[in-house]
Amino acid sequence: MKRLLIASTSTVHGKAYLEYILPELELFFKGVNEIVFIPFARPGGMTYDEYTERASLGFKKLKIRVKGIHEYENQIEAVKNAKGIFTGGGNTFELVKQLYDQKLIEPIKTTVNKGIPYFGTSAGSNVTGLTMKTTNDMPIVYPPSFDTFGFINFNINPHYLDPIEGSTHMGETRETRIQEFHKFNAAPVLGLREGSWLEVVGAKIVLRGTLQARLFLKDKTPIELDTNTDLSDLK
Amino acid sequence: MKRLLIASTSTVHGKAYLEYILPELELFFKGVNEIVFIPFARPGGMTYDEYTERASLGFKKLKIRVKGIHEYENQIEAVKNAKGIFTGGGNTFELVKQLYDQKLIEPIKTTVNKGIPYFGTSAGSNVTGLTMKTTNDMPIVYPPSFDTFGFINFNINPHYLDPIEGSTHMGETRETRIQEFHKFNAAPVLGLREGSWLEVVGAKIVLRGTLQARLFLKDKTPIELDTNTDLSDLK
């Protein structure tokens, strides 16, 4: 039975890395003492080692050891033998490119579908959806495909941002961007605000955290969903 | 001798579509009474006809007729015979996908390099650079390549946005995104604020408008460039 925590962000304003979600992670990774960390998204361009160090510090309080997937001689074997997987945020294009280049898409799918817990933040959450076509990131590298894991039957827009009132900037709002997505694609898009996450247990998907999330369906007016909304049937 | 106007935006806050740049366009398109409009970027998902209508209204004061490229039976011939080209903003991924799908990349390169004036706004400016890897847009469709026209030897970031002071949002700032780009790419990136444009005449490239632009070079601290700065040697 697959189990995922799909978080909008690793960090909320004013708190340390992962701090806001630690109580949830403690339950989620109960009985797991080591996880494989996928640092490919390299936020700010940091190295795999630097990023793995950051993730390790985040998990220190839970006494969970974090090992970067780049530290393994055979990354596919590392995924197959993982007790838990954490994919960190950063640039979704580089993350997806590396997942394809290292041939990890299918191994991670298989591992997660057999019940190994998967935790994602930001870009690591984008890839749990059907495609990465609703990422906010800059296309700094060209991945071989925009298709992602599809652990859920819709797309995530992490760090969902409401229009800034009184803004004079003429760039598109997040809502406009997602509505443009729906001119070319049918998949629902869930705008997850920072501090929200999805809890996936088997076929059950529930919105968690204290905030509402914004759901975009093709050709419909967007709607606000309260926390604890059941999204199992969304597709 | 190639001639381009590469504008950050079509519209500045509080003014009508193209209004702020009309005096410049009048000089730029002097002697031209009809231009071919490329509406592929479809802002907000509007149709080609709707977008062409908008562009026509923008050029009405200059008595320049605007014809959408989709109205021609043979789009490649339309480019070859164009007296001027205007590529409008919207979604850069869809724009680039269509430019490749319709096999227009090489014809437009040839036409512009032989001296037909090219005006771009936003996404239409992104594509004048080496690649579209510094667009702000959402990857709603998968283009066959991120390579673009390369009329200038660097990349544009249109709608350049300074960090919002006091923001509690944890998503990356524009500057962070461009610095991530430089972890994987060497090309200079010019952050063009709304109301700025580049004037290209042959090998000469000059920053125009009233604002400064922000120049990002790999492994260097970003710098502010004053209007009228000569960028001809930037590469």
TrEMBL record, chains A, B:
Keywords: Dipeptidase, Hydrolase, Protease, Serine protease. The keyword Protease applies. Its EC number is 3.4.13.21. InterPro entries: Class_I_gatase-like (IPR029062), Peptidase_S51 (IPR005320). One of its GO terms (molecular function) is dipeptidase activity. Transmembrane segments: none annotated. CDD domains: GAT1_Peptidase_E (cd03146). It holds the Pfam family Peptidase_S51. Belongs to the peptidase S51 family. NCBIfam families: PRK05282.1. This is Dipeptidase PepE.
